[in-house]
Amino acid sequence: MTFENTKEFAKKLDSQDKLNKYRDEFIFPKVNDKKVIYFTGNSLGLQPKRTKAYVDEVMDDWANLAVEGHFYAEKPWWDYHERFAAPLAKIVGALPSEVTVMNTLTVNLHLMMVSFYRPTKTRYKIICEEKAFPSDQYMFQSQVDFHGYKTEEAIVEIKRRDGEHNIRLEDVLAKIKEVGDELALVLIGGVNYYTGQVFDMKTITAAGHEAGAVVGWDLAHAAGNIKLELHDWNIDFAAWCSYKYMNSGPGNASGCFVHEKHHDNPDLPRFAGWWGHNKERRFKMEPTFDPVHGADGWQISNLPVLSLAPYLASVEMFDEIGMDALIEKRDKITSYLEFVLQEIDKEVDSSFEIITPASLDERGCQLSVLLHGEGRSLFDYLMKNGVITDWREPNVIRFAPVPLYCSFEDMYDFGQILKKGIQEVH
């Protein structure tokens, strides 16, 4: 398609957009009495209007039923999480038995490492990407220390080549081969939070397995954003937060995946708790742990139903739409944003370098833009003028045009605000 940087063209794209109606399903903050242009769904998604009804339902059941809500609420609390299995499985490409919801992201990754990082004297190294999200870095360091290894020896970072912003697939595969028999675990972010690069999870997982390692993925920036086929890619485990592209609210419950090939392995260690025990026998209070079959067997504690309610509202919206439709719009609106940035670049003295890969196979809806000749003052201008975006040092702004609630007209309007901001800041 040939794009045009005009309001009329943007409105035409919106009129053709089958998902445009979902924009009205969300609550937008306002700046200067106008709805903001919201580019930070890769950090915290907007609140769906339907969320309140789901939370109110739990509050009403608590008020009217108290403890009996576990069994007699319209959505009984004791099996509330089971409502996620089918729709979440579609979103991440899994079997319903392979997914569950519990805890928060880094907690779940730690719990997965209990089961899947089993270092030995000769096979103890972890491969991750350079500049992984800090929480992952801290997790790796603490896990390695817990097992009695030195960070500088056990953690192997795949680095970007000099002068390049993204990690090459051939460098990932070469590093896996190089570490070889010493490799215990490959654990990488499926989408790099800084650049927005999408990794070839299928190919990397196969290479890790060929080297004799376990392969897991942090899908914080991937779930609800890109096409995932966790089961078919033979991934061992994965976890993701629900509050970015999946709009479940700040710090909310995490999703978790464990491949079915591990479900019947009695020798696989895990940290156990009451809620992961055999559902049919849970209230018999037996002394020996008998895990629920499937990913639910990794649960530990009673369900945080008030936290799960907003996530369920969002998951059911995703189920209505389907990932294919979301991805189709994602690619179109992200490409239009890219076009707008390039057009504005021609009209101002500054220059923009998009450090996110150009290939649609290697990006989701985030574009990370290096602003040559600009500083924090431009970001501040955008925020004061109703463009909610994200600044990363030294001078990168991350834009995420989430297809559920961003419009093509937003992209055009942003371009005009950006141009004016550059002219006024200088």
From TrEMBL:
Domain Aminotransferase class V: 66-246
Matches recorded under Pfam families: Aminotran_5 (PF00266), KYNU_C (PF22580)
Family: Belongs to the kynureninase family.
Quaternary structure note: Homodimer.
Cofactor: pyridoxal 5'-phosphate
Cross-referenced InterPro entries: Aminotrans_V_dom (IPR000192), Kynureninase (IPR010111), PyrdxlP-dep_Trfase (IPR015424), PyrdxlP-dep_Trfase_major (IPR015421), PyrdxlP-dep_Trfase_small (IPR015422)
Organism lineage string: Bacteria, Pseudomonadati, Bacteroidota, Flavobacteriia, Flavobacteriales
Record keyword Hydrolase present: yes
Organism superkingdom: Bacteria
Keyword Hydrolase annotated: yes
E.C. code: 3.7.1.3
GO cellular component, one term: cytoplasm
Enzyme class (EC, first level): hydrolase
Known pathway: Amino-acid degradation; L-kynurenine degradation; L-alanine and anthranilate from L-kynurenine: step 1/1; Cofactor biosynthesis; NAD(+) biosynthesis; quinolinate from L-kynurenine: step 2/3
Reactions the enzyme catalyzes: L-kynurenine + H2O = anthranilate + L-alanine + H(+); 3-hydroxy-L-kynurenine + H2O = 3-hydroxyanthranilate + L-alanine + H(+)
Organism: Flavobacterium frigoris
GO MF annotations in UniProt: kynureninase activity; pyridoxal phosphate binding
Binding-site positions, pyridoxal 5'-phosphate: L105, T106, F133, P134, S135, D136, D218, H221, Y243, W274, N302
Sites of N6-(pyridoxal phosphate)lysine modification: K244
Keywords attached to this entry: Hydrolase, Pyridine nucleotide biosynthesis, Pyridoxal phosphate
Job description of the protein: Catalyzes the cleavage of L-kynurenine (L-Kyn) and L-3-hydroxykynurenine (L-3OHKyn) into anthranilic acid (AA) and 3-hydroxyanthranilic acid (3-OHAA), respectively.
Name this protein carries in UniProt: Kynureninase
An annotated GO BP: L-tryptophan catabolic process to kynurenine
